Amino acid sequence: MAGVGLTLMEPVKLLEFLKFAGKLKALRRTGWVKNGIENPETVAGHMYRMGVMSMVINDPQLDMNKCLRMSLVHDLAESIVGDITPHCGVSDEEKHKKETEAMESLTSLLDPSVGKEVQNLFQEFEAQATAEAMFVRDLDRFDMILQAFEYEEAEKRPDFLQEFFSSTVDKFRHPSVRELVTELIKQRAERASASIGGSV
């Protein structure tokens, strides 16, 4: 007698999906690799802290559960196409096409209703037309500059990752994230000043 629940094919497909997701635990973020960071952050590590931020930065006007889920799926396509950055020589249009095709492939492995939700979250993030998508984009950028600051501190090389900070100037929109950015920039300036003073 057939059991109630998943069919034989469903766990096979789900396991395949989870294997793809697991690749992000080993996929290093391209920007850090290109800057010679030793043992650079992975894509999964990046999405994890974004997820944590979406839990602890509370905004009653946003669907924070959606923000958490969006944080966890927005880079899933990189398990197939890799971490494509503006320095990779790939146009925005081609990047979007590759990632959209990758997400279609990945979500085909899921139950249709779940796959549709994952696909919708990805498309919503890409379109940047909702308050939740814009908030998650802010988290995406903030985690990047926070990570850059942490690398500068770890390597005792103030300002050597300035390009990441420069790329985000005037791009943060959510007030809570802007407050975090202001504090981070303040701490970074203080560390740089202390480093210069200590080297005299």
UniProtKB/TrEMBL annotation:
Binding partners and assembly: Homodimer.
Q: Name the Gene3D superfamilies on file.
A: Hypothetical protein af1432 (1.10.3210.10)
**EC number(s) given by UniProt:** 3.1.3.89
What's its catalytic activity? Answer: a 2'-deoxyribonucleoside 5'-phosphate + H2O = a 2'-deoxyribonucleoside + phosphate
- Co-factor(s): Mn(2+); Co(2+); Mg(2+)
What's this protein's function?
Catalyzes the dephosphorylation of the nucleoside 5'-monophosphates deoxyadenosine monophosphate (dAMP), deoxycytidine monophosphate (dCMP), deoxyguanosine monophosphate (dGMP) and deoxythymidine monophosphate (dTMP).
Give the record's family classification: Belongs to the HDDC2 family.
What are the UniProt keywords, alphabetically?
A: Hydrolase, Magnesium, Metal-binding
Could you mention a single GO BP entry for this protein? Answer: deoxyribonucleoside monophosphate catabolic process
**A Pfam family this protein belongs to?**
HD_3
Do you know which InterPro entries this protein is assigned to? HD/PDEase_dom (IPR003607), HD_domain (IPR006674), YfbR/HDDC2 (IPR039356)
Q: Which GO terms describe its molecular function?
A: 5'-deoxynucleotidase activity; metal ion binding
Q: Which SMART domains match?
A: HDc
Gene Ontology CC? cytoplasm
Task: List the top taxonomic levels of the source.
Answer: Eukaryota, Metazoa, Ecdysozoa, Arthropoda, Crustacea
> What is the protein's given name?
5'-deoxynucleotidase HDDC2
The first-level EC class reads hydrolase
Ranges for domain HD/PDEase come to 39-154
